[in-house]
Amino acid sequence: MTDINAVASEVSKLKLRLDQAQLTYRDASLKSRREIVILKRLISRLSVACKGLDNELDEKLCELRTELEQQKDVSKLIPRLAVIERLVTRQASFTENENHLLEQQIFHSGETLKRLPGLPAQLKRELRNLLGQPSDTLVQTHKHTVRLLELYERALKLMSVSNNAMVMKDALDHDLQLQLTNELQRLITELDFDGDDGERLMNIRNRLLLGVSPKTLIELSLEVLRLVLDGTHNERRSSQHFLDGINSDLATLQKTTNQSVGQSSALYEHRNEMTSELATLAGTIKQGLGEHKNLEAWRPALTDLTKELLVLAERNKALEKREKALIEQLSYNEGKINGLFEQTQDYRRRLNDQERKMFLDNLTRVYNRAALHERLEHEYRRWLRYQHPLSVVMIDIDHFKEVNDNYGHLAGDKVLKIIARTIRQNLEETDFIARFGDDEFMLILPDVSEEERTKRLTKIRESITQLPFRFRDQNVSITVSIGATLFHGNDTPDDILERTGKALFSAKTAGNNRMLWIS
């Protein structure tokens, strides 16, 4: 009887261990499903981070993201992952070839440019228009670069056919040369490159501020172009490196996830088999205990049943080892997914920082000209809809060139930064300020009454007049002229910019430190 009780006790313990193992497997299965949810979220955010690199890649990532939201079985999406991998490889090859063509064009145009001294006025106008066009993607930047080099080459070839040096000198329009100089300065200010490239660009900007010859201007323009291309190449390589890393990690996750799914299914089947066998043995033992009064006679059969229980126990231990390995694999996947998530978050933060820098003036830290045009278009559309008062203001620093000439360009930069900060401090949160030119600032004042806008602009003008500038042991007084206008009738943003410029010109003609409204 004691032996029977011992056997019954061992059976109860073994059943308890099997129940605990089944609970452990259920937890592992739930954790596996949770990891799949995390993987889905990672793919979704990855598609956002990679947006804009390639249209087809964007489309496939978008489709994959949609499928992930609807598909419960991740293994069915493996073919789509393979397609995305091929697209990434194709994109790398395509961009490499495009950049190789650009490098050849740069070299050819540079060699031609070295032999010629100037640039025709008409082509300078085309060059200025081209520099004013935005480049939102890498492909657009490359196309604009090729177009810019073509303009250089055309200009130099046209100039080379002229034998009269005086004709070439007269063809160089001084006003257009100044405009190109200002455009290059603005471009350098907005680039915000780090390291040696950033220092070289700032040196070029300082030379442009001091004034250069037409030949030097062309050489500096080409150098800026090369630096822009280098920056573009570095960004492309960084993006490619990021994509390669993500692609490799995704391939690893795909493989390990498939393995985990297969192992989970196999473990589940083995558990069911063991549970069924254990139930059968338990039933046989129970039946035997009820039918056999003489246990000694039933001992051989009971011994065989005990051996089967021991076999089941050994099989259970083997399953526990496999479950442990599966849990470790899932833990590895979790770490890998968390690492990928952090990478994509860092990359997204970097993209956000770059986007923010694109719309900020590097010197004054107010918005730049590109941001002005975007905001003006937005406020114009709101004005069309609601017809609220919408004011546009241009502020110009009086005699700013004399500050640069008398005290140096570092003093001029300090004046620009302090005046920009002073203007911003006297504006409301809904107002907008941008640096429009070298010493000009544009304001947009939406939905402000006549009395309030006049009061606000007067305070700005008077606050700047009271700023305590001191250079080379001399107190320097700085004033500004202000021209302003309002949207009305059939006005467009271009009409407003032109009328604001006229208002500023009239204010400066009437004398410094004045404010003039024009309708």
Automatic annotation (TrEMBL):
Alphabetical list of InterPro entries matching this protein: DGCcoil, Diguanylate_Cyclase, GGDEF_dom, Nucleotide_cyclase, Rev_trsase/Diguanyl_cyclase
GO BP annotation list: cell adhesion involved in single-species biofilm formation; negative regulation of bacterial-type flagellum-dependent cell motility
Record's keyword annotation contains Coiled coil: yes
Catalysed reactions, as listed in the record: 2 GTP = 3',3'-c-di-GMP + 2 diphosphate
Coiled coil start-end: 4-31, 302-357
Record EC number: 2.7.7.65
Keywords from the named record: Coiled coil
Record-level Gene Ontology MF annotations: diguanylate cyclase activity
Entries under PROSITE patterns matching the protein: GGDEF (PS50887)
One Gene Ontology CC term in the entry: plasma membrane
Cofactor(s) in the UniProt record: Mg(2+)
Pfam families noted in UniProt: DGCcoil (PF20975), GGDEF (PF00990)
Domain of life per record: Bacteria
Domain named GGDEF: residues: 388-519
NCBIfam families: GGDEF (TIGR00254)
Name the record gives this protein: diguanylate cyclase
Lineage: Bacteria, Pseudomonadati, Pseudomonadota, Gammaproteobacteria, Vibrionales
